[in-house]
Amino acid sequence: MPHKRLFIPGPTEVHPDILAAMATPMIGHRGAEYSELQKRVTEKVQKLAYTSNPILFSASSGSGLMEGAIRCSTVKRAIVFSVGTFGNRWFEIAQGNGIPADKHEVEWGKGLPSEVVDEHLSTGKYDCATLTHSETSTGVMSDLEEMAVVFRKYPEVVWCIDAVSSFGGVKIEVDKLGIDIMVTSSQKCLGLPPGLSLATFSPKAEKRAQGVRNRGYYFDLLQLLQFIREKNFQYPSTMTIPHMFALDRQMNRIEKEGAEARFSRHDVMAAAVQRWARARFALYPDEQYASRTVTCIKNTRGVSIADLNKELGKRNLMLSNGYGKLKEQTFRIAHMGDVQMSDIEELLGAIDDILKLK
Ligand SMILES: Cc1ncc(COP(=O)(O)O)c(C=O)c1O
To answer: Is the shortest distance between the CB of 165 and ligand 1 below 6 Å?
Structure first.
């Protein structure tokens, strides 16, 4: 079967160099060579996340470290701020782990005003809060700078961010913003195959975790940290070593492109897709909250997304229908990872052609 170029919001396209890195012959996960690999990757990720905090890795997709984050950060009660499906996932994780938690969910397509966050935190009920940066189901992006102003007022609250569909495509200055835990997955803006996740971990989050009695096992963030410190950048179980080789090489590619250039490329692609969506359909999220990595488009013409994708498939292209309850009402175009403006132009041109929009 010929490969269809992916414009779905993860997994994204993987560059042939990265696929080749995945096929590097294995090394042992308890040797110096592995330690050097994880240390090297850590330093590169720290640079891209603008942080000096440790980088925790997990041989799981991002949901795993989301579980670890909320579980290891809550002693009193967590507040989950949700702008869609993945916000709700934090809450489901909390419930599944018996973590006391409340959820504030906004109407889908709307963003989360920082005043709402302030209101909840000011009750003093919470010691952990979770936020989704780019909500892949609704195409809503939260303004982290605005949120940071609020979080600074509540030093007792450990602030966890789901940056699964934004890290590597949008600038997130972890230390400047004061984010305690920022979780991301390999298969989105980082442009790797799925199966690896990583998180930044602040000293405040570490201290909190020390007070949590049941941190679980596989996603015990303190155990991940302990293996980094005591075993010189190793992982408690067997790491997905192919992903580490791939991330090492991908971080070099990102460095070569330049982080700022990478973020601008994402901005330019987002603006182009949003412009097209406004002219042909309508944006699903409120304008001011439109994500810079994935655009969720209202299916105002009532086209069959399945049929559209079938036609796009003949041209070896693929986009995504809406998520969950938005399946028929919306469709989504991802502009993240290693996708270039020329790819976006080709996709939008193909849709225009198939639907006779021009
Ligand atoms: C915003 C967001 N959060 C969390 C997840 C879950 O990540 P993973 O599939 O890597 O577990 C996704 C996956 O699509 C996502 O888009």
So the answer is: yes
